[in-house]
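If your schedule permits, I should be very grateful for your opinion on a structural question. I have a record of one protein: its chain in single-letter code and its fold written as discrete structure tokens. Would you kindly read the sequence against the tokens and tell me how you understand this chain to fold? Thank you for your consideration; the sequence and its tokens are set out here.


***
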Amino acid sequence: MPEMLPKYVKLGYQYLVDHILTFLFIPIMAAVSIQILKLGPEEILTIWNSLHFDFVQILCSSFLVTLIATVYFMSKPRSIYLVDYACYKPPITSRVPFWTFMEHSRLILKDNPKSVEFQMRILERSGLGEETSLPPAIHYIPPNPTMEAARGEAEAVIFSAIDTLMQKTSIEPKDIDILIVNCSLFSPTPSLSAMVVNKYKLRSNIKSFNLSGMGCSAGLISIDLARDLLQVHPNSNALVVSTEIITPNYYQGSERAMLLPNCLFRMGGAAILLSNKRGDRNRAKYKLVHVVRTHKGADDKAYKCVYEQEDPQGKVGINLSKDLMIIAGEALKSNITTIGPLVLPASEQLLFLFILIGRKIFNPKWKPYIPDFKQAFEHFCIHAGGRAVIDELQKNLQLSAEHVEASRMTLHRFGNTSSSSLWYELSYIEAKGRMKKGDRIWQIAFGSGFKCNSAVWKCNRRINTPNIGPWQDCIDRYPVHIPEIVKL
């Protein structure tokens, strides 16, 4: 029904509804002003003298106003600021061009040519480029996924990102009050958060957390946890580290559903500094507005659609279900149903309500109205989980090619870096000089369990084009054309 309306009619409707209070307020104020102007000085003086002010009433009224204001400001949530963030940039020696990846696959799976052919077809349609990276242990033939190698990858990724963040923010290790590290599949003892504490000699009273097994959306879960902790710990800094360690999780079997992650997942990580200090309000890049989390784990299909298991030969890997995109779509619907009323303008909410009522009462064949989230956000960071994920969200949310450009280019340049991909996308937008003060950003991520999580940020200040970052040496080459199929 809405698509049948002329474009200018819909624009006029949106403008009218979104500014309805202004349109109502101006005539009322004009009428009051005209009436006041009609009164003479003597009439105004008479009205003033007729007002009787009692000292006790004034005192009680002032006390009541002060009490209400105090309760309001004390109950108001603390503002959470993103001071800055940094993404890990893999060295050139870790890159895996297509021919290298396929040569290794042929050598590792020499007894199973059909699995090699399957991986080649996936890689051709994946949307990945020639510069994605895998850790050193995976470059061996066969791969050498030892605990020592996995720790080495974790140290390289996490420490590099934190060092860059400390350089950008000038924060000292002693100033970090809260530490949260999320890595889904690699969970050693001592934990990765303990590894960070040991490396940077963080304070003994630091509140540290290590999140594992929560999939690619764990980065926003970490942000949500940090937000909750910063609400109860005033004047604090929180360091959030999001990564996925590839070394111990490279599948060496031949099950097709478990070979998919080998083709998509690559090295990556990000470190984010959050603060609730008023002193950081002016220097912080972004302000956190909302975090909305949706969990579909009560449904058995959703729970098992991304599942770590052993294949018939006893080799461990991640099994990706054929129903993954359907389940992701259902999780997204649940998430946007919650986030929509928080961010959409009144015009979109009313239109959605009218169409919903119309379908119930008049004609159930009317198409459901998909709210125009472009009215609520200037930038979209969709988890670069794969080409199909980005395509589906672009279609469902009716986004333009520019809206999903950051996600597609991140997938092409860095691959699926799991929970850290959202920060590579945000860095892309900044590197392109597109971020302006007041812009709103929607980060959307999916993860095992099955979960769909969203975070909404507002740009807090003017963002200068960064001179360091993961896109530093290649941003001028992007965006690039990504063909449907890259013949290998």
